Structures are given as structure tokens and as C-alpha cells.
């Protein structure tokens, strides 16, 4: 149950962050805003590390395969694409499309067992759920 609430908080924070980041972009540029966002995230993470676990900062370099270390670089592009989509579509439409894209890609990752994720079998109910989510986007966008 705790995972459910953490996911809800995560979704809410992503929406608020996207709006904040879009506003910061208006007084600078998208890459300056993205760099600022990533820098402040680094400061928060270092502060949390200092006050909690103090594990080795070099431990991530031991991860295999090495491409798993690209999460931060991907994060920079996530920040960029969230800002651009919220600026052009508005927060509600952008988040709806982002969430549907996340669901679709996550399901494909599970189905194919990519990136070390345990492979899951095809389930019609999940495909129907995805179709309903996509229909929701269409209905939401419909004028």
C-alpha cells in the first residue's frame, strides 16, 4: 500500500515540477532551466546523502551493464521534453500524454524483459487498460 501512495505523490510532484520548470524557462532558456533543475536536484541528493546513508559515491560505477549509468543523461532530456510539452500543450494535456507514453513503454519493457526486468506474459486486460487510457487522452483532447 505504501508503494501506491508513493506513486501518487510522485505523479503529483512531477506535475508541479513541470509547471515550475516551464515558468523558469520563461526567464532564461530551456537548457539553462534544465541545468538549474539538475543542479538543484544534485544539491538535494548530496544533502540527503550527507544526512542519511553515506555510502560510497563511487559505488554506482560498479553497476553492470554500464549503459545503466545513463539515467542522469536521460533525466536531462526528460526535463527538456516535459518543459517543451507543457509549454506547447498545457500541463493537463502534456501530463496525460506523458503518462500514457510511460505506461506503453513500461509495458513493452515488461513484455520483452528489457534492461534486466523480469519478462511478463501478454495479458489482454492490460492491453484493454492501455486502450482505455489512450481513449481517455482522445476524449480529454476532444473539442
How would you describe what is shown here?
Helix content is 74%, strand content 0%. By secondary structure, the chain is mainly alpha-helical.
What is this entry, summarized?
The protein has 143 residues and is an all-alpha fold. It has five helices and no strands.
Q: Which features does this protein show?
A:
5 helices, 143 residues, 2 domains, mainly alpha
Give the ordered list of helices and strands: HHHHH
Overall pLDDT, averaged? Answer: 91
Uncertain regions spanning at least 5 consecutive residues: none
How would you sum up the major sheet? none
Helix-strand category = mainly alpha
Specify Rg, calculated over alpha carbons. 18 Å
Q: What number of structural domains do the residues give? A: 2
Distance between the termini: 37 Å
Write the SSE topology.
Elements: H1 2-26, H2 30-51, H3 71-89, H4 91-112, H5 124-141
Helix pairs in contact: 1-2, 1-3, 2-3, 3-4, 4-5
Amino acid at each position: 500500500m505504501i508503494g501506491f501512495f508513493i506513486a501518487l505523490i510522485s505523479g503529483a510532484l512531477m506535475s508541479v515540477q513541470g509547471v515550475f520548470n516551464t515558468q523558469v524557462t520563461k526567464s532564461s532558456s530551456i537548457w539553462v532551466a534544465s541545468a538549474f533543475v539538475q543542479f538543484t536536484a544534485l544539491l538535494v541528493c548530496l544533502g540527503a546523502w550527507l544526512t542519511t546513508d553515506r555510502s560510497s559515491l563511487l559505488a554506482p560505477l560498479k553497476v553492470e551493464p554500464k549503459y545503466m549509468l545513463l539515467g542522469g543523461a536521460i533525466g536531462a532530456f526528460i526535463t527538456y521534453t516535459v518543459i517543451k510539452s507543457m509549454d506547447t500543450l498545457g500541463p493537463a494535456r502534456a501530463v496525460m500524454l506523458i503518462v500514457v507514453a510511460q505506461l506503453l513503454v513500461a509495458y513493452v519493457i515488461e513484455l520483452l524483459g528489457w534492461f534486466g526486468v523480469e519478462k511478463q506474459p501478454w495479458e489482454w486486460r492490460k492491453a484493454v487498460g492501455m486502450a482505455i487510457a489512450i481513449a481517455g487522452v482522445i476524449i480529454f483532447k476532444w473539442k
